[in-house]
Amino acid sequence: MRILVVGAGATGGYFGARLAQAGLDVAFLVRAQRAQQLKRDGLQIISPHGDLTLKPQLLQAHELSQPFDLIILSVKSFALNQAMDDIAPAVGEQTMIMPILNGMQHIATLRQRFGEARIVGGLCKIIATLNDQQQIVQMTPLHQLIYGEFSGEMTPRIEQLDRLLRQANIEAQLSDNVQRELWEKWLFLASLGAVCCLMRGDTAQVMAAPQGEQLIGALFAEVLATLVASGYEDRPAVTARLLESLCQADKPMTSSMYRDLMQGNAIEAQQIIGDLVERAQRHSVPTPLLSATWTQLNVWQQQRQA
Ligand SMILES: NC(=O)C1=CN([C@@H]2O[C@H](COP(=O)(O)OP(=O)(O)OC[C@H]3O[C@@H](n4cnc5c(N)ncnc54)[C@H](OP(=O)(O)O)[C@@H]3O)[C@@H](O)[C@H]2O)C=CC1
Ligand SMILES: CC(C)(CO)C(=O)C(=O)O
Protein backbone atom coordinates (compact mmCIF):
# COMPACT_ATOMS: atom_id res chain seq x y z
CA MET A 1 0.00 0.00 0.00
CA ARG A 2 1.47 3.37 -1.03
CA ILE A 3 0.95 5.94 1.70
CA LEU A 4 1.17 9.70 1.34
CA VAL A 5 1.40 11.71 4.55
CA VAL A 6 0.44 15.32 3.94
CA GLY A 7 2.46 17.57 6.23
CA ALA A 8 5.55 16.45 8.15
CA GLY A 9 4.69 18.47 11.27
CA ALA A 10 4.13 17.26 14.82
CA THR A 11 1.47 14.63 14.10
CA GLY A 12 2.08 13.70 10.45
CA GLY A 13 5.84 13.65 10.97
CA TYR A 14 5.53 11.48 14.07
CA PHE A 15 3.03 8.91 12.79
CA GLY A 16 4.50 8.89 9.29
CA ALA A 17 7.97 8.27 10.70
CA ARG A 18 6.71 5.36 12.80
CA LEU A 19 5.06 3.82 9.71
CA ALA A 20 8.21 4.28 7.66
CA GLN A 21 10.29 2.82 10.51
CA ALA A 22 8.12 -0.31 10.27
CA GLY A 23 9.11 -0.66 6.62
CA LEU A 24 5.88 0.65 5.08
CA ASP A 25 5.98 2.58 1.81
CA VAL A 26 5.55 6.14 3.07
CA ALA A 27 6.15 9.41 1.25
CA PHE A 28 5.67 12.86 2.80
CA LEU A 29 4.11 15.73 0.89
CA VAL A 30 5.95 18.82 2.08
CA ARG A 31 6.45 22.43 1.01
CA ALA A 32 9.74 23.84 -0.23
CA GLN A 33 11.24 25.04 3.04
CA ARG A 34 10.45 21.89 5.02
CA ALA A 35 11.73 19.80 2.08
CA GLN A 36 15.05 21.59 2.13
CA GLN A 37 15.44 21.24 5.91
CA LEU A 38 14.44 17.54 5.90
CA LYS A 39 16.88 16.76 3.09
CA ARG A 40 19.62 18.39 5.13
CA ASP A 41 18.85 17.08 8.64
CA GLY A 42 16.54 14.11 8.12
CA LEU A 43 13.19 13.71 9.87
CA GLN A 44 14.09 13.69 13.54
CA ILE A 45 11.83 12.37 16.28
CA ILE A 46 12.56 12.73 19.98
CA SER A 47 10.29 10.35 21.82
CA PRO A 48 9.83 8.38 25.03
CA HIS A 49 9.44 5.36 22.70
CA GLY A 50 12.90 5.88 21.24
CA ASP A 51 14.44 8.64 19.16
CA LEU A 52 14.57 8.21 15.43
CA THR A 53 16.15 9.94 12.44
CA LEU A 54 14.92 9.03 8.98
CA LYS A 55 15.83 9.97 5.47
CA PRO A 56 12.20 10.25 4.36
CA GLN A 57 10.78 9.97 0.84
CA LEU A 58 9.80 13.56 0.08
CA LEU A 59 7.48 14.94 -2.55
CA GLN A 60 6.35 18.44 -3.35
CA ALA A 61 2.95 19.23 -4.85
CA HIS A 62 4.22 19.68 -8.42
CA GLU A 63 5.73 16.17 -8.31
CA LEU A 64 2.42 14.38 -7.61
CA SER A 65 1.00 12.57 -10.62
CA GLN A 66 0.09 9.01 -9.53
CA PRO A 67 -2.70 8.00 -7.16
CA PHE A 68 -1.79 6.77 -3.67
CA ASP A 69 -3.70 4.03 -1.83
CA LEU A 70 -3.86 5.96 1.43
CA ILE A 71 -3.50 9.68 2.10
CA ILE A 72 -3.07 10.66 5.74
CA LEU A 73 -3.94 14.32 6.08
CA SER A 74 -2.19 16.05 8.97
CA VAL A 75 -2.18 19.76 8.16
CA LYS A 76 -3.78 22.39 10.38
CA SER A 77 -7.42 23.21 9.52
CA PHE A 78 -6.52 26.64 8.10
CA ALA A 79 -4.18 24.92 5.60
CA LEU A 80 -6.82 22.43 4.42
CA ASN A 81 -7.98 24.19 1.25
CA GLN A 82 -4.47 24.49 -0.16
CA ALA A 83 -3.70 20.89 0.87
CA MET A 84 -6.83 19.64 -0.96
CA ASP A 85 -5.74 21.38 -4.14
CA ASP A 86 -2.24 19.97 -3.76
CA ILE A 87 -3.27 16.34 -3.24
CA ALA A 88 -5.85 16.25 -6.05
CA PRO A 89 -3.45 14.52 -8.52
CA ALA A 90 -2.72 11.83 -5.89
CA VAL A 91 -6.40 10.95 -5.41
CA GLY A 92 -7.55 8.04 -7.56
CA GLU A 93 -10.71 5.91 -7.69
CA GLN A 94 -9.58 3.65 -4.83
CA THR A 95 -7.72 6.19 -2.70
CA MET A 96 -8.63 6.34 1.00
CA ILE A 97 -8.22 9.75 2.59
CA MET A 98 -7.79 9.64 6.33
CA PRO A 99 -7.66 13.06 8.05
CA ILE A 100 -6.31 13.20 11.59
CA LEU A 101 -7.16 16.85 12.24
CA ASN A 102 -8.90 17.96 15.40
CA GLY A 103 -12.52 19.10 15.23
CA MET A 104 -15.16 18.05 12.71
CA GLN A 105 -15.69 20.64 9.96
CA HIS A 106 -12.92 19.24 7.78
CA ILE A 107 -14.84 16.00 7.25
CA ALA A 108 -17.70 17.74 5.43
CA THR A 109 -15.20 19.82 3.46
CA LEU A 110 -13.28 16.73 2.35
CA ARG A 111 -16.45 14.82 1.46
CA GLN A 112 -17.64 17.68 -0.66
CA ARG A 113 -14.35 17.86 -2.51
CA PHE A 114 -13.44 14.18 -2.94
CA GLY A 115 -16.72 12.29 -2.36
CA GLU A 116 -17.97 10.58 0.76
CA ALA A 117 -16.70 7.12 -0.18
CA ARG A 118 -13.05 8.14 -0.17
CA ILE A 119 -13.05 9.58 3.34
CA VAL A 120 -12.20 7.30 6.25
CA GLY A 121 -12.62 8.48 9.84
CA GLY A 122 -9.39 9.16 11.70
CA LEU A 123 -8.01 10.91 14.72
CA CYS A 124 -4.86 10.88 16.75
CA LYS A 125 -4.10 11.25 20.43
CA ILE A 126 -0.61 12.52 21.02
CA ILE A 127 1.07 15.48 22.64
CA ALA A 128 3.75 16.60 20.25
CA THR A 129 5.36 19.74 18.94
CA LEU A 130 8.08 20.99 16.62
CA ASN A 131 11.06 22.51 18.43
CA ASP A 132 13.37 25.31 17.22
CA GLN A 133 15.43 22.85 15.19
CA GLN A 134 12.26 21.51 13.52
CA GLN A 135 12.62 18.19 15.35
CA ILE A 136 9.39 16.51 16.42
CA VAL A 137 9.23 16.23 20.18
CA GLN A 138 6.72 13.75 21.60
CA MET A 139 6.06 15.07 25.10
CA THR A 140 4.34 12.03 26.67
CA PRO A 141 4.19 8.32 25.70
CA LEU A 142 0.64 8.69 24.29
CA HIS A 143 0.63 7.85 20.57
CA GLN A 144 -2.76 6.55 19.53
CA LEU A 145 -4.14 6.46 16.02
CA ILE A 146 -7.86 5.60 15.81
CA TYR A 147 -9.64 4.96 12.51
CA GLY A 148 -12.67 3.32 11.00
CA GLU A 149 -15.37 3.55 8.38
CA PHE A 150 -18.02 6.15 9.23
CA SER A 151 -20.61 3.42 8.56
CA GLY A 152 -18.99 1.30 11.28
CA GLU A 153 -18.59 -1.57 8.80
CA MET A 154 -15.51 -3.80 8.78
CA THR A 155 -14.83 -3.43 5.07
CA PRO A 156 -11.91 -5.19 3.37
CA ARG A 157 -10.13 -1.85 2.88
CA ILE A 158 -10.37 -0.84 6.54
CA GLU A 159 -9.21 -4.27 7.67
CA GLN A 160 -6.27 -4.02 5.29
CA LEU A 161 -5.46 -0.58 6.69
CA ASP A 162 -5.69 -1.95 10.22
CA ARG A 163 -3.28 -4.82 9.46
CA LEU A 164 -0.85 -2.31 8.05
CA LEU A 165 -1.00 0.27 10.84
CA ARG A 166 -0.64 -2.41 13.48
CA GLN A 167 2.85 -3.13 12.20
CA ALA A 168 4.10 0.24 13.43
CA ASN A 169 5.34 1.18 16.89
CA ILE A 170 2.17 3.12 17.72
CA GLU A 171 -1.12 2.24 19.37
CA ALA A 172 -3.26 1.59 16.32
CA GLN A 173 -6.96 1.08 16.99
CA LEU A 174 -9.68 0.12 14.53
CA SER A 175 -13.04 1.49 15.72
CA ASP A 176 -16.56 0.41 14.76
CA ASN A 177 -17.78 3.84 15.89
CA VAL A 178 -15.24 6.38 14.72
CA GLN A 179 -17.89 9.12 14.69
CA ARG A 180 -18.29 8.71 18.46
CA GLU A 181 -14.51 8.70 18.88
CA LEU A 182 -14.42 12.04 17.05
CA TRP A 183 -17.14 13.55 19.27
CA GLU A 184 -15.37 12.41 22.43
CA LYS A 185 -11.99 13.62 21.23
CA TRP A 186 -13.52 17.02 20.44
CA LEU A 187 -15.20 17.16 23.84
CA PHE A 188 -11.89 16.64 25.60
CA LEU A 189 -9.77 18.77 23.34
CA ALA A 190 -12.14 21.76 23.11
CA SER A 191 -12.55 21.82 26.89
CA LEU A 192 -8.80 21.57 27.39
CA GLY A 193 -8.06 24.20 24.73
CA ALA A 194 -10.69 26.60 26.09
CA VAL A 195 -9.50 26.25 29.69
CA CYS A 196 -5.84 26.79 28.77
CA CYS A 197 -6.43 29.64 26.29
CA LEU A 198 -8.91 31.52 28.46
CA MET A 199 -6.82 31.17 31.61
CA ARG A 200 -3.40 31.30 29.88
CA GLY A 201 -2.08 28.37 31.83
CA ASP A 202 -1.98 24.60 32.06
CA THR A 203 -4.66 22.55 33.78
CA ALA A 204 -2.65 22.11 36.99
CA GLN A 205 -2.24 25.89 37.28
CA VAL A 206 -5.96 26.36 36.76
CA MET A 207 -6.70 23.65 39.34
CA ALA A 208 -4.47 25.46 41.86
CA ALA A 209 -6.34 28.77 41.35
CA PRO A 210 -9.52 29.78 43.22
CA GLN A 211 -12.61 28.38 41.44
CA GLY A 212 -10.29 26.66 38.93
CA GLU A 213 -11.90 23.25 39.18
CA GLN A 214 -15.39 24.80 38.88
CA LEU A 215 -14.28 26.65 35.75
CA ILE A 216 -13.02 23.43 34.13
CA GLY A 217 -16.27 21.69 35.05
CA ALA A 218 -18.42 24.53 33.71
CA LEU A 219 -16.56 24.74 30.38
CA PHE A 220 -16.69 20.97 29.98
CA ALA A 221 -20.46 21.02 30.66
CA GLU A 222 -20.96 23.68 27.96
CA VAL A 223 -19.02 21.69 25.37
CA LEU A 224 -20.85 18.49 26.31
CA ALA A 225 -24.29 20.14 26.07
CA THR A 226 -23.38 21.55 22.65
CA LEU A 227 -22.21 18.20 21.33
CA VAL A 228 -25.27 16.42 22.70
CA ALA A 229 -27.50 18.99 20.95
CA SER A 230 -25.50 18.26 17.76
CA GLY A 231 -26.08 14.50 17.90
CA TYR A 232 -23.54 13.04 20.34
CA GLU A 233 -25.02 10.42 22.67
CA ASP A 234 -23.57 11.09 26.09
CA ARG A 235 -21.87 8.12 27.72
CA PRO A 236 -21.80 9.30 31.36
CA ALA A 237 -19.02 6.91 32.43
CA VAL A 238 -16.80 8.08 29.56
CA THR A 239 -17.53 11.77 30.02
CA ALA A 240 -16.89 11.46 33.79
CA ARG A 241 -13.50 9.90 33.04
CA LEU A 242 -12.63 12.65 30.55
CA LEU A 243 -13.54 15.37 33.04
CA GLU A 244 -11.57 13.62 35.78
CA SER A 245 -8.47 13.52 33.59
CA LEU A 246 -8.76 17.29 32.98
CA CYS A 247 -8.96 17.93 36.73
CA GLN A 248 -5.77 16.22 37.87
CA ALA A 249 -3.99 18.72 40.10
CA ASP A 250 -0.65 16.91 39.74
CA LYS A 251 -0.77 16.31 35.96
CA PRO A 252 -0.41 19.57 34.02
CA MET A 253 -1.90 19.35 30.54
CA THR A 254 -1.98 21.74 27.60
CA SER A 255 -3.54 21.48 24.15
CA SER A 256 -1.75 21.99 20.83
CA MET A 257 -3.89 25.10 20.22
CA TYR A 258 -2.66 26.64 23.47
CA ARG A 259 0.96 25.79 22.69
CA ASP A 260 0.54 27.40 19.26
CA LEU A 261 -1.01 30.50 20.82
CA MET A 262 1.84 30.85 23.30
CA GLN A 263 4.35 30.58 20.45
CA GLY A 264 2.51 33.23 18.43
CA ASN A 265 1.55 30.73 15.70
CA ALA A 266 -1.73 30.66 13.79
CA ILE A 267 -4.38 28.73 15.72
CA GLU A 268 -7.34 26.52 14.83
CA ALA A 269 -9.76 28.67 16.84
CA GLN A 270 -12.57 28.41 14.29
CA GLN A 271 -12.39 24.62 13.89
CA ILE A 272 -12.03 23.85 17.60
CA ILE A 273 -14.06 26.60 19.37
CA GLY A 274 -15.91 28.76 16.79
CA ASP A 275 -17.70 25.76 15.28
CA LEU A 276 -18.98 24.81 18.77
CA VAL A 277 -20.21 28.34 19.47
CA GLU A 278 -22.10 28.34 16.14
CA ARG A 279 -23.65 24.96 16.96
CA ALA A 280 -24.63 26.18 20.45
CA GLN A 281 -26.34 29.23 18.94
CA ARG A 282 -28.16 27.08 16.39
CA HIS A 283 -29.49 24.77 19.12
CA SER A 284 -30.07 27.53 21.73
CA VAL A 285 -27.57 26.03 24.17
CA PRO A 286 -26.27 28.69 26.57
CA THR A 287 -22.45 28.73 26.45
CA PRO A 288 -21.19 31.94 28.13
CA LEU A 289 -17.71 30.61 28.83
CA LEU A 290 -17.19 29.11 25.39
CA SER A 291 -18.43 32.35 23.81
CA ALA A 292 -16.01 34.35 25.96
CA THR A 293 -13.19 32.03 24.83
CA TRP A 294 -14.19 32.53 21.20
CA THR A 295 -14.24 36.32 21.62
CA GLN A 296 -10.88 36.24 23.39
CA LEU A 297 -9.28 34.12 20.67
CA ASN A 298 -10.54 36.54 18.01
CA VAL A 299 -9.09 39.50 19.91
CA TRP A 300 -5.80 37.62 20.16
CA GLN A 301 -5.86 36.88 16.41
CA GLN A 302 -6.36 40.59 15.66
CA GLN A 303 -3.40 41.44 17.89
CA ARG A 304 -1.28 38.76 16.21
CA GLN A 305 -2.02 40.17 12.77
CA ALA A 306 -1.45 43.82 13.75
N1 LIG B 1 0.39 18.53 17.96
C1 LIG B 1 -0.41 17.79 18.70
O1 LIG B 1 -0.05 17.42 19.83
C2 LIG B 1 -1.75 17.36 18.18
C3 LIG B 1 -2.32 17.93 17.04
N2 LIG B 1 -3.53 17.46 16.58
C4 LIG B 1 -4.15 18.00 15.39
O2 LIG B 1 -3.45 17.51 14.25
C5 LIG B 1 -3.55 18.44 13.17
C6 LIG B 1 -2.13 18.76 12.68
O3 LIG B 1 -1.47 19.40 13.76
P1 LIG B 1 0.11 19.39 13.96
O4 LIG B 1 0.70 18.19 13.35
O5 LIG B 1 0.34 19.69 15.38
O6 LIG B 1 0.49 20.67 13.08
P2 LIG B 1 1.93 21.20 12.63
O7 LIG B 1 1.78 22.64 12.42
O8 LIG B 1 2.98 20.70 13.55
O9 LIG B 1 2.13 20.46 11.26
C7 LIG B 1 1.37 20.75 10.13
C8 LIG B 1 2.30 20.62 8.95
O10 LIG B 1 1.52 20.71 7.77
C9 LIG B 1 2.36 21.28 6.79
N3 LIG B 1 1.57 21.76 5.67
C10 LIG B 1 0.60 22.70 5.67
N4 LIG B 1 0.08 22.82 4.43
C11 LIG B 1 0.74 21.94 3.64
C12 LIG B 1 0.66 21.61 2.27
N5 LIG B 1 -0.21 22.19 1.44
N6 LIG B 1 1.50 20.66 1.80
C13 LIG B 1 2.39 20.06 2.61
N7 LIG B 1 2.53 20.33 3.92
C14 LIG B 1 1.69 21.26 4.42
C15 LIG B 1 3.11 22.37 7.52
O11 LIG B 1 4.29 22.57 6.80
P3 LIG B 1 5.05 23.95 6.60
O12 LIG B 1 6.29 23.76 7.42
O13 LIG B 1 5.31 23.98 5.14
O14 LIG B 1 4.16 25.05 7.11
C16 LIG B 1 3.36 21.70 8.87
O15 LIG B 1 4.61 21.07 8.92
C17 LIG B 1 -4.28 19.66 13.73
O16 LIG B 1 -5.64 19.60 13.38
C18 LIG B 1 -4.11 19.52 15.24
O17 LIG B 1 -5.17 20.12 15.97
C19 LIG B 1 -4.15 16.38 17.16
C20 LIG B 1 -3.62 15.80 18.27
C21 LIG B 1 -2.43 16.29 18.90
C1 LIG C 1 -6.40 16.12 23.09
C2 LIG C 1 -4.97 16.42 22.73
C3 LIG C 1 -4.36 17.18 23.87
C4 LIG C 1 -4.21 15.10 22.64
O1 LIG C 1 -4.43 14.37 21.52
C5 LIG C 1 -4.93 17.16 21.41
O2 LIG C 1 -5.53 16.67 20.48
C6 LIG C 1 -4.25 18.44 21.15
O3 LIG C 1 -3.40 18.87 21.94
O4 LIG C 1 -4.51 19.04 20.10
Automatic annotation (TrEMBL):
Reaction equation(s) it catalyzes: (R)-pantoate + NADP(+) = 2-dehydropantoate + NADPH + H(+)
UniProt GO MF annotations: 2-dehydropantoate 2-reductase activity
Pfam families listed in its UniProt record: ApbA, ApbA_C
InterPro entries documented for this protein: 6-PGluconate_DH-like_C_sf, 6PGD_dom2, ApbA, KPA_reductase, KPR-Related, KPR_N, NAD(P)-bd_dom_sf
Keywords carried by this UniProt record: NADP, Oxidoreductase, Pantothenate biosynthesis
Pathway noted in the entry: Cofactor biosynthesis; (R)-pantothenate biosynthesis; (R)-pantoate from 3-methyl-2-oxobutanoate: step 2/2
GO cellular component: cytoplasm
Start and end residues of each Ketopantoate reductase N-terminal domain: 3-151
GO biological-process terms attached to the record: pantothenate biosynthetic process
E.C. code: 1.1.1.169
Sequence ranges assigned to domain Ketopantoate reductase C-terminal in this UniProt record: 177-298
Similarity annotation: Belongs to the ketopantoate reductase family.
Role description: Catalyzes the NADPH-dependent reduction of ketopantoate into pantoic acid.
Listed name of the protein: 2-dehydropantoate 2-reductase
Naturally occurring in which organism (per UniProt): Duffyella gerundensis
